[in-house]
């Protein structure tokens, strides 16, 4: 039973050993050349850094002389420090071939720094003429540094010319080694593949013929292979599959029919759940609103009462007609403002409402009567019980693929256990709790989950005594489902 497996493992071991050996050899030589090349390149970059830093220092000094300001003086000091740092790195590049030149190079840098310092000092002492002379000297020294940088680079190129030639030769030798290794691996693979294929080609051909017969619906062809390896086991399994395939097809057809019926029942259940969430107007809210309107009319007799009646009419009309279909955020925000107008009339200064709405998000669709019940819950639990009232903050903001709605109050908050009960629809809300729509928090959560087909569409953040924040994460494009 292990013949084929042993052959495959042997081939794998040989190939892996050769590949690892080649990888180690090539990596070693490549890393060695790369480290040497990086060292030389770093020398060139450090020399070039000195030249660039000296030129930048002269430019900053010129700007400071023309307009002496603290910010430009800070630029001069920063460029001077960068030049001194570059000088420290250059000092480490000394060797026998560049000792004299590098010493002069470092002295030029010191002279440039001294000229810069003198020019600044004289300029601060109002000795502009001498300051300009030192600036001219600094400019000349910067040019000498640039010229000597080229000289040092030329010296470095001559010094490492032989190294470059050696790198080229090593590269050529590595290519030759790679070609020979590839040829060896190819030969071994071809040899082993030929030997391996002889032991499995014929049994596989018989299995192929049997599979062709099965694909034509002929389940009476017996499959038998005289061998002692995995192919023989496969043939026996294939034969058992032939015997059971008719029963399997019948079972799959029956299962597909059951799944189809289950899906239909699921859709009907969702539709039934959605319809069951469409509750009627709560009389308690109507009583509170009408009582507020009557007192307002009695005390004022003004046009504001007319506006209040109009808002109530719009709110009731929306509640009665919008629950059976999705609406836009624009419609939800508009009816929310009508509701807040009514509640502000009721609670006066006790209710403080702030909104931050990104108008670009108002095209997104949402189930009707989603936002108002959440705001209403905040009014009932965070405003109504408190004598001094409180503040409710309403935000709509735009993110990459979602629209985020946040409703935050300053009420007494709730515990983690209460939040879990609400999110899992286990919270027993009291009937007649003042909701204008009769739609509680759990119903809103269920409707959102049914509409979007997601579980993370709503989250609640709250601590006892620290208020509550409800966060709705609405996809800009509803997933097809």
Tell me what you see in this structure.
The protein is about 70% helix and about 10% strand. Strand 6 and strand 7 form a beta hairpin. The chain has helices at about 5-65, 70-90, 100-125, 130-160, 160-215, 230-275, 285-300, 305-320, 330-345, 370-385, 415-425, 440-450; strands spanning about 325-330, 350-355, 365, 390-400, 400-410, 460, 470-475. It is built from twelve helices and seven strands. A five-stranded mixed β-sheet has the order 2-4-5-7-6. The protein has a two-stranded antiparallel sheet with strand order 1-3.
For the structure shown, list the relevant keywords.
481 residues, alpha+beta, five-stranded mixed sheet, two-stranded antiparallel sheet, 7 strands, flat
In short:
With 481 residues, this protein is α+β, with helices and mostly antiparallel strands. 69% of the residues lie in helices and 9% in strands.
**Structural class based on helices, strands and sheet pairing:** alpha+beta
Helix content: 55-70%
In terms of DSSP E residues, the strand content is 5-15%
Shape: flat
> What is the residue-mean pLDDT, rounded to a whole number?
78
The number of helical segments is 12
Order of helices and strands: HHHHHHHHEHEEHEEHHEE
How far the N terminus sits from the C terminus, by CA atoms, comes to 48 Å
Please outline the major beta sheet: 5 strands, mixed
What does the secondary structure layout of this molecule look like, with pairings?
Elements: H1 3-66, H2 70-91, H3 99-124, H4 128-159, H5 161-215, H6 230-276, H7 283-299, H8 303-321, E1 326-328, H9 329-347, E2 351-357, E3 365-367, H10 371-383, E4 390-398, E5 402-409, H11 416-423, H12 441-452, E6 458-462, E7 468-475
Parallel strand pairs: 2-4
Antiparallel strand pairs: 1-3, 4-5, 5-7, 6-7
